[in-house]
Amino acid sequence: MPEDGALPASALAGAASRPLGFYLHVPYCATRCGYCDFNTYTATELRGSGGVLASRDNYADTLTDEVRLARKVLGDDPRPVRTVFVGGGTPTLLAAGDLVRMLAAVRDEFGLADDAEITTEANPESVDEAYLAELREGGFNRVSFGMQSARQHVLKVLDRTHTPGRPEACVAEARAAGFDHVNLDLIYGTPGETDDDWRATLDAAIGAGPDHVSAYALIVEEGTQLARRIRRGEVPMTDDDVHADRYLIADEVLGRAGFSWYEVSNWATTEAGRCLHNELYWRGADWWGAGPGAHSHAGGVRWWNVKHPGAYAAALAAGRSPGAGREVLSEEDRRVERILLELRLVEGCPLSLLKEAGLAAARKARDEGLLEVAPYAAGRAVLTLRGRLLADAVVRELVD
Fold first, then answer.
1. Which string of DSSP letters, residue by residue, matches 86-112?
2. Are the beta carbons of 21 and 82 closer than 8 angstroms?
3. How many other C-beta atoms are found inside a 10 Å radius of the C-beta of residue 378?
4. What pTM does this model have?
């Protein structure tokens, strides 16, 4: 990465036809969840490793510096920002006013589309009615709460500290504050979770009244506390067959409640309830990721920031880009990525992306009930329910 963050001309070629989004990463957490391998830090982990530069007290100012850098790098790009997503970590460990100031920096430098989607993730224990009202007044219109499970023993295995019932109460508080769109994030397949536990979680989530639910299979990442506990035999390893069963339960229960899948792990009650920011990722649009470890993409150029908050802040304070590296994707790279990502969507991916071997694999997958017949005939490969269970395997065959 050049010190000024300059991009090759190819990155913005044809940019006017692509939406532009911003991801704002807040790397702070009160405690570390045992399954998490995201780029996050507790106060203890940061103590003495970056000084004031790594402080969350002035983080909004530091991130604003990168938003201003983005304006310089993108030059006279006229696109207003279509989506802003504040993720973490736990963004709501910052004061609500800090999140509003970060959003204001994007608005001031780029402008926001009239129908811009503005989301923040939130820990249920780190917000209240006043906090949510301040976010809504400051321009946020979507909030995503980390619920994970409605069962205390499941939350304990995940090292989640919120009280069962609190995420559901947060949905009501967000609605009262004026949020039109509310998501609940769920995790299934945690060691010790039963089918009944999972059904209870789904029922609690649906009963809370969100218009969006994300449900993810628990992935045990190497280096996490959960991986170490499994290795020591303290909790059992996760099971792929259990994951498949839980997914089928989720699709059936959510479907019966009026939620429709639009991406393998995401369901919404209406098209307006879909997460537009994530759709930018899945459809290969442009986004700038600001914050330690954040990744960005523009026109086939991908880059990423240094991970440590201290190093990130030091680079910006010195007037340098915090970028750690970048790559320019080849046409073949972009073709493969489109298949990988678009096949996960309810609309599927165009068959025109497939080569001869991929088309043969698509015909085989259709015959095996993994791809829909009618959309296939209409020129798109669309996963069936069974195909969603085997999505990774199907994709591997289609990219040849």
1. EEES-GGGS-HHHHHHHHHHHHHHH-E
2. yes
3. 11
4. 0.93
